[in-house]
Structure formats: structure tokens, C-alpha cells
Amino acid sequence: MQDFTQYTPTDIVFGRDAEKETGRLAKKWGAERVLIIYGGGSVVKSGLLKSVEQQLDKEGIEHTSIGGVQPNARLALAQKAGMSAIKFKANMILAVGGGSVIDTAKAAALSAVNQDSELWDIWTRQIPAPDCALPVGVVLTIAAAGSEMSDSAVLTNEETGKKKGFSLDIIRPIFAVMDPALMFTLPKDQIACGVVDILMHTLERYFTPVEGNMLTDEIAEGLMRTITTQGLKAYQNPSDYEALSEVMWCSSLSHNGLTGLGRANDFTCHKLGHELSGMFDTPHGASLSALWGSWARYVYQTDPERFANYGRKVWGIDIEDTDEAAQAAIKRTEQFFRDLDMPTCIGELRPGVQTDDLIKKLADSATDGDTVKLGTFQPLDMDDVIAVYRMANHR
User: Fold this and answer.
1) Are 235 and 188 in contact (CB under 8 A)?
2) DSSP class of residue 129?
3) What stretch of H or E contains 64?
4) Global pTM?
5) Which of 50, 102, 150, 286 is the most buried (most CB within 10 A)?
6) Residue whose C-alpha is closest to residue 10's, from 170, 131, 182, 223
7) For residues 383 and 381, what is the distance between their CA atoms, to the nearest angstrom?
8) pLDDT per residue as tens digits for the range 267-317
9) Interacting residues of 214 by C-beta distance below 8 A, sequence separation 6+
10) Are 25 and 15 a contacting pair, CB within 8 Å?
């Protein structure tokens, strides 16, 4: 086990009607003037936004709001929200929504306090990381990204088509209210994408060159068993409160650092998927399920025992031969994606099968012109990334 620092200070209120605690928590953490950020009209139609505003009113907290966040959070709206926070003199930002809304709030929180710097320069580490941001609170409506407890966020630059992740402790939410019942009205494809993202957050930490990390492994394997069983139940019955409860809690624990303690993370599939999402606006979860099997087949011989152990512990695969068990684990994971009606290759995504020139362009972007190797389980250069994309580029 490697040395590590664990920091997960988010104040969680979980359960039915948890959103009614929003005002109390905001006041507890010093809110006086709050900018609310939300997505489309669903939180308006459902009455959730009005309920949250009423909770803030009860505590004497001034508030204003900005909507319009889209899936794959956009840089331009984050900048606009940052300017709104400055104009309103907000001392807290409240995200009411899922991962893209929370990520937009985190970016706006950085932008509002560091207004002398371009947000994209901060995001791409072109300048030193800032040491301050507005505090962010969350009312979670979609279990997927785990952004409600994480120190990370992802933005898409619409002008360049580049999607980029960013991590810094100061953007970790100070509180999150989580009511699984808020997911009852979600479309099934959003639940499926969320379940895939939760599983992938754990897989990207599980496949690591670090050995002997027993407790972290057990936590990760338990989470993966839970999300695969309960996630499928939630997808099949989106009004199953107990299944959604498990999915929502898995979302938070999958991305707050707990399942990767004491080892290096990989996140190659996320980086490859970001290129697809940035170029084609592909749903995040779909980009991950479309690529994971090809990545796994390309790298599994680096440590087939790791893949075999994953298959045995998570999927109950009873095959003695290590190589056969490893390959069976990959197939079983892909079958799970299919059970959720999720893609398992690029050809099943909206853009369809791509030209080889486009594949090379994606790989060039992912590796910054072959100057960066991706991942830690088996570091991949540009030729490796091209090979993975090619493996996935079929129907």
C-alpha cells in the first residue's frame, strides 16, 4: 500500500425529503447570498427548485439562480455563472442537479474568486492552481458522477471541442443533500449512464500496478457487486427506492477517493471517452462503456490475475485458469453494459464507426501529441491509444 492522504469533509444528509435540509445546511456553512445553478426545466416542473428557494427563504438567505446547464458541462455557461456570482456578491454556490450541474458550480466557484485569470487557463493548469474558491453545496438529483463528494470536475470547451478534467480540494462540496426519490422521474437511459459511470469510477481505481492493498480492494469489490446488482434493478424499475438508494450512495463512495486509497489511479478510459464526448457530445457513460472492453483486452495480459480476481470477486466467475477467468470477466462486464442497453463499441454510439484519420486525431488529442502517456496499469502512448480506439471502432 502506498502512502496517502484522505480528505472527504462533505456534510451528507441522505434519505427521503433530504432536500428540506438545504436551508439549514446552507446557513450552517455560512451562506448569506447564494447563487443557485440548475440544468433544464425538470427541477422547475417538479417543484424542487421552488422548494429549495423556500428553504433558503426560511433561513433569511438571499438567492438568485441561473439555469441551462447541459450534459457535458460547458465552459461558457460556467464563466457566465461565475460572473453572475460576482454581480450578486454570492458567498456560496448551490448546485441543484446531477454531475454536469455540480461541475458547472465548481467551475463557477473558481471563476468568481479568481476573476483576474481565465477559467480555461486554470482548468488546463496553464497557470498555478488557485488557493481559494466559493464554497459549493449540492442538492443531488442524479446518481452518476459522484461529484457531490469529489474534488474533481469536468468541463467541455465548446470552441475547441476539448473536454478536460480538473481536481483540487477547494472545489469539493461542503455539503450535499441526497434524496433517492428525486430520481423517480429520470429517463432510463440516464440511470443506465449513471450506473456505468459509477462502476467505471471504481474500475479505474481498481486496475492498478500496486499490490497488497487488501482493504481498499475489499471496499471496491463490495461497491462493484452492489452497483451491478442494484444498478440493474434500478434500471429495470426506476421507482425502486431501495435500489436507487444503493445506487446513489455508490455514486458518492465511488468517487470520493475511498476506493483508490493507497494506490495509483488509472482513468485511461475516462480520458479516451472525454475525447469522444468533446468531439461528438457523446453521453459520458456511453463513451465509457463503448471503450472499456477494448481497453481491457489490450492491457489485461499486463496482469491477468488482477482481471481474474475481479471476475471471481465481483461476478462470481468460477474458472480456475487465470487467462480464461480474465477474459470471462471482460465479457461479463460487457454483457452487463448490454443488459443496461449501453454501447460496447464506437459503432453503437451516435457518430457511428469513424475513419482512421479521425481515430488518429482522437489519439493525438488524448496524448497531447504523444507527449503524455495515459494510465498507470499499463501506460499507453499514442500508438497504444490508436490501437485501443481501432479495437473499439466497429459496429
Assistant:
1) yes
2) P
3) strand 62-66
4) 0.94
5) 102
6) 170
7) 6
8) 999 999 999 998 898 999 999 999 999 999 999 999 999 999 999 999 999
9) none
10) no
